[in-house]
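User: Sequence recovery, please. Input:
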């Protein structure tokens, strides 16, 4: 099956975007005869000697009269190697919103420049917007080379000028193609006018550009759009969850967790649009997932991997493009926020700055965003979002703002991450900001012997917090030793450093408003007390929870066989056997096996965290 490539064109007025697309369609034999006849007839009526191929995309009457592109025109064509969707986006600054919407799903951005005038402010603006929108491949088409006598020196000048600017942007793949779209040179076929150019034609490059690695196949994300329950005939017991895979791969037998509930289950089957069972669903494919367990899953919920979850939070930092011409964005305005398949009310906490898309200058004193303006905002949602930064996933990292009264879409946003610092619109001083953040964020430090039950209680606590709308993240000692602390062993000094590092990470998370759940043995009292002091000095709440399970009970459980190995002398320095564990002097909470199952014990910690 041919792979689909989405292409967006951009450039200054009269750089030849529409002509380039028309030439691609014409020379690849992708237009019908009646379309060509209509273009030739219109061209003659306008006094032209030859067919103006730009008319294939300039569909609006206003565009034809002015000779410019206003709206976003889409054209579809295919070659034996690939299918294409071409979006001809407008070049003028007053139509920035059209480019943002037209290029938001593009794999490749074609930015045209006139070889005679070189890189303009509009060229830089379009390059910046392409970078902002996360378009992974950018092609600078140096057009109208026939008007500079096919000069290699001029091409190199334009190339160097653009590359110098592009180094300031996040552009992963940059290609340069000299061409003359009016005559078709280097558009579909190589030209003999520029023998010094050793690259391929534009179409050949588009056919071969590698986009498979652009899809995020690591982070499995499946926002549930619709629950399918026929409740009749032979399918009366069927329950499936339909949607489009936003990232990763989902196949039969995969273990998944459902957000926000936190319940885990496995994928029983994956079905395609026709209802037939398929091996797996990949990013951007529409599927229906059946689960082995009958659990509560609704529209707006998300399936992901238990050990690879999206960020969860109600406060986000984002870049926003304002789309409405009859209103403005201001701090403290309320909207409906649409994110994947979920909808929630949201307040704009602050407008940090407005961005001049021509100079990339930040205007920190801006009070509002008007039509086509872009700015950085902090948003607080009524219900928590399950999101990834836009750079990592363009689906789970984007959102729309909708006016509550009119229902009109007023802004498009790209999430940069959780809100790093509280807004100065709501809080008036750093001291008050710190106190307000501390009232929301906190660290829960769960300590105890190996196999005491720390991890099961921590996992249940995380599930309860997320389900209640409070962002939380679990820092598991075993997992951290494979990454952040992989350079540490089990000496007393390295154990102290292990605790210090985990404490520092937990403090940063709590400072950002999360509930950080640190779950590790941390055997030495002095190390844990040092973490507590650091939190208290920063004004962040710290709760030490001691899971007081007798060593005899831990040895009976021994799920990893560590106690048995320590007793046999295979390992040394094991806490509880030949290395001491120092219980807390004044823990905030003590949990014992007699206190109930993991849900009951986690509920005791929830009470501790209650306002």
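Assistant: Recovered sequence (611 residues):
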């Amino acid at each position: 099956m041919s792979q689909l490539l989405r292409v967006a064109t951009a450039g200054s007025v009269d750089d030849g975007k529409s002509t380039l697309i028309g030439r691609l369609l014409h020379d690849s034999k992708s237009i019908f005869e009646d379309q060509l006849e209509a273009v030739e007839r219109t061209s003659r009526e306008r006094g032209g000697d030859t067919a103006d191929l730009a008319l294939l995309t300039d569909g609006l009457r206003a565009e034809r009269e002015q000779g410019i592109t206003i709206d976003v025109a889409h054209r579809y064509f295919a070659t034996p190697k690939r299918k294409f969707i071409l979006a001809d986006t407008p070049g003028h600054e007053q139509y920035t919103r059209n480019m943002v919407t037209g290029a938001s799903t593009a794999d490749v951005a074609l930015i045209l420049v006139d070889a005679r005038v070189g890189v303009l402010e509009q060229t830089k603006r379009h390059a910046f917007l392409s970078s902002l929108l996360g378009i992974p491949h950018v092609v600078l088409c140096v057009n109208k080379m026939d008007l500079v006598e096919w000069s290699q020196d001029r091409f190199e000048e334009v190339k160097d000028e653009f590359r110098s600017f592009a180094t300031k942007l996040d552009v992963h793949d940059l290609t340069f193609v000299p061409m003359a779209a009016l005559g078709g040179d280097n558009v579909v076929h190589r030209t003999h006018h520029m023998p010094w150019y050793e690259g391929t034609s534009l179409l050949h490059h588009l056919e071969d550009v590698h986009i498979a690695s652009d899809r995020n196949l690591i982070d499995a994300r499946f926002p549930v759009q619709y629950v399918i329950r026929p409740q009749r005939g032979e399918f009366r017991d069927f329950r499936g969850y339909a949607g489009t895979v936003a990232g990763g791969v989902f196949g039969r037998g995969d273990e998944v967790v459902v957000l926000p509930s936190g319940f885990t289950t496995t994928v029983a089957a994956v079905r395609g649009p026709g209802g037939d069972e398929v091996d797996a669903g990949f990013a951007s494919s529409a599927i229906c997932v059946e689960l082995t367990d009958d659990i509560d899953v609704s529209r707006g919920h998300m399936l992901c991997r238990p050990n690879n979850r999206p960020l969860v939070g109600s406060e986000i930092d984002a870049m926003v493009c304002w789309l409405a011409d009859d209103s403005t964005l201001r701090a403290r305005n309320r909207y409906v926020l649409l994110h994947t398949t979920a909808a929630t009310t949201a307040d704009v906490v602050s407008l940090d700055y407005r961005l001049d898309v021509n100079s990339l200058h930040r205007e920190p004193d801006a009070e509002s965003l008007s039509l086509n303006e872009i700015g950085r905002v902090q948003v607080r949602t009524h219900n928590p979002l399950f999101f990834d930064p836009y750079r990592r996933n363009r689906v789970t990292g984007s959102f729309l703002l909708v006016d509550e009264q009119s229902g009109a879409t007023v802004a498009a946003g790209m999430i940069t991450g959780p809100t790093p610092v509280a807004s100065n619109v709501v809080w008036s001083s750093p001291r008050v900001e710190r106190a307000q953040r501390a009232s929301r964020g906190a660290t829960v430090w769960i300590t105890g012997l190996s196999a005491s039950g720390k991890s099961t209680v921590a996992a249940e606590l995380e599930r309860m917090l997320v389900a209640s709308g409070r962002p939380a993240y679990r820092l598991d000692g075993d997992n951290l030793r494979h990454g952040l602390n992989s350079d540490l062993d089990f000496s007393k000094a390295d154990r102290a450093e292990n605790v210090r590092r985990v404490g520092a990470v937990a403090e940063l998370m709590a400072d950002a408003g999360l509930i950080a759940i640190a779950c590790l043995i941390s055997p030495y009292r002095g190390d844990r007390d040092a973490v507590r002091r650091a939190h208290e000095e920063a004004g962040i709440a710290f709760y030490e929870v001691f899971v007081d399970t007798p060593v005899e009970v831990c040895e009976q459980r021994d799920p990893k066989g560590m106690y048995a190995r320590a007793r046999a002398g295979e390992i040394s320095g094991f806490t509880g056997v030949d290395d001491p564990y120092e219980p807390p002097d004044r823990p905030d909470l003590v949990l014992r096996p007699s206190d109930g199952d993991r849900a009951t014990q986690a509920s005791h910690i929830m009470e501790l965290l209650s306002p």
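Residues 59-70, 421-439 have pLDDT under 50 and may be disordered.
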